[in-house]
Each structure stands twice: as structure tokens, then as C-alpha cells.
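Page 47, continued from p. 46.
Same chain as before, 116 aa.
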Amino acid sequence: MADVMLEELRKRLGDDDFVLVDVRTTAEFDGHAGAHCDPRQGHIPGAVNLPLDRLLECRSANEVRALVGFAEGVEIVAYCHSGNRSDFAAQVLRGAGYEARNYVGSWHEWSRAVPD
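Result:
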């Protein structure tokens, strides 16, 4: 399954069948922590926070589905800071039966390319 690029993500935000998942820590999501190389901290508008460590605590596909609670048929796009954690999260989500992709540019790209 192909990674999501910036332009596709911008077009899909707000679609009913699309969920954007930030797998960074809650502190990164809230803007209280983050990489110093980014011009600003925070998250992509409309994203929900599902820290990767919580996802990795799940021991089965059923536990993953119970944790995320997304409806069947939605497409999930995961992102983090640089696309590594989110790539792993997308694999876990696909293993639980979701259609999940990775936004490889992640917050590192978004924080530069898209104004507040």
C-alpha cells in the first residue's frame, strides 16, 4: 500500500471515510514537546492522538480494534515526527484488518509546508 504524500493528505482532510492518526506521544501531540528541528509544535488539524506505545500494548487484532474503535471501511493514515513510528503503526493497524497507510513526511514536513 502506497505512502500518503502531502498533497493527497491536504485534499483528504475532513473526508468522512478518512481518519488521521498521530502516533506520537501526547506531549508531542499537544505541542508541549517535540523535535527542535521543527519550526513549530502541535498536530495536524483533525488528527486524533493514539500514541504508538498504547497501540503496541495490544496483544491481538481484537485488542487493537477495541482500542482504536474506528468504523470498518474508513481509511486510516498514521503520522509521527518523521514517518518511522507511523510506518510501524500502519503495519499494526493493517494486521488488525484496517486499511492503513503512512504519511511519510509526517509532522516534520507538515510543520514547514502548511501554515498554522
